Automatic annotation (TrEMBL):
Database matches in InterPro entries: dITP/XTP_pyrophosphatase, ITPase-like_fam, RdgB/HAM1
Keyword hit for Phosphoprotein: no
Name this polypeptide is given: dITP/XTP pyrophosphatase
PANTHER family: INOSINE TRIPHOSPHATE PYROPHOSPHATASE, INOSINE TRIPHOSPHATE PYROPHOSPHATASE/HAM1 PROTEIN
Listed GO MF terms: dITP diphosphatase activity; ITP diphosphatase activity; metal ion binding; nucleotide binding; ribonucleoside triphosphate phosphatase activity; XTP diphosphatase activity
Length: 201
């Protein structure tokens, strides 16, 4: 029996997102990641919204590879910073994730608990090689802590505190995070479209 051909490209360069998307999709759809394919130029993320950037990434990766592509544009919107870093979350500070959340903590120094509210947002875009697209969004509410805690997750997770439990997103297992996260919420809305890719004629 021949190996079945891949049905869906996870079009992200972010290993944390890739890990979460793989766990969310399980074995319901055959997937490949960018690392499995010949190099493809990285789209410029010049949109003003998560949706615009997610669609741009999905369309460009689908055209370049000939595969249906699922792209994720996401970020952290902090109320006391007028929604920043928002779509610029990945570029908020040079260096690594730690440098970025440390900058955030320093920007919020002296800001009291009740004004440290924030939300994670995620737009997931599915694009077919012919240019058709479908977008779903999700969000997760919380507040920014005062020091990092937890070893799981990625990005700003160690400083993002959940309102009900007081735990950081980085203190949750991958399954616990996906059950309440912006990405998990967007993914569950997108899932029927993804399953339709796997359907055999
Ligand atoms: O703590 C976090 N938990 C999350 O669940 C999460 N989701 C997104 N982010 C942050 O938001 C930016 C995304 O930027 P982004 O959408 O452009 O992705 P990226 O550039 O890393 O990869 P790509 O998918 O574009 O290839 C990056 O700084 C991420 O750290 C998160 N941080
Ligand atoms: Mg990016």
């Amino acid at each position: 029996m021949s190996t079945p051909s891949p049905k869906l490209l996870f079009a992200t360069t972010n290993k944390g997102k890739l890990r979460e998307l793989r766990q969310l999709v399980g074995d319901s759809v055959e997937v490949v990641s960018l690392a499995d394919l010949p190099p493809v130029p990285e789209p410029e993320e010049d949109g003003d919204t998560f949706e615009a950037n997610a669609v741009k990434k999905a369309v460009e990766y689908a055209r370049a590879t000939g595969l249906p592509a699922l792209a994720d544009d996401s970020g952290l919107c902090v109320d006391a910073l007028d929604g920043q870093p928002g779509v610029l979350s990945a570029r908020y500070a040079p260096g690594d994730d730690k440098a970025r959340y440390e900058k955030l903590l320093s920007e919020l120094s002296g800001v009291p608990d009740e004004k440290r509210t924030a939300s994670f947002r995620c737009a997931l875009a599915l694009a077919w090689p012919d240019g058709r697209t479908h977008v779903e969004e999700g969000r997760c509410e919380g507040r920014i802590g005062y020091a990092p805690k937890g070893e799981h997750g990625f990005g700003y997770d160690p400083v993002f505190i959940l309102l009900d439990s007081g735990r950081s997103l980085a203190e949750l297992t991958a399954e616990e995070k996906s059950a309440i996260s912006h990405r998990g919420a967007a993914f569950r809305k997108m899932k029927p479209k993804l399953l339709s890719l796997a359907a055999r004629p």
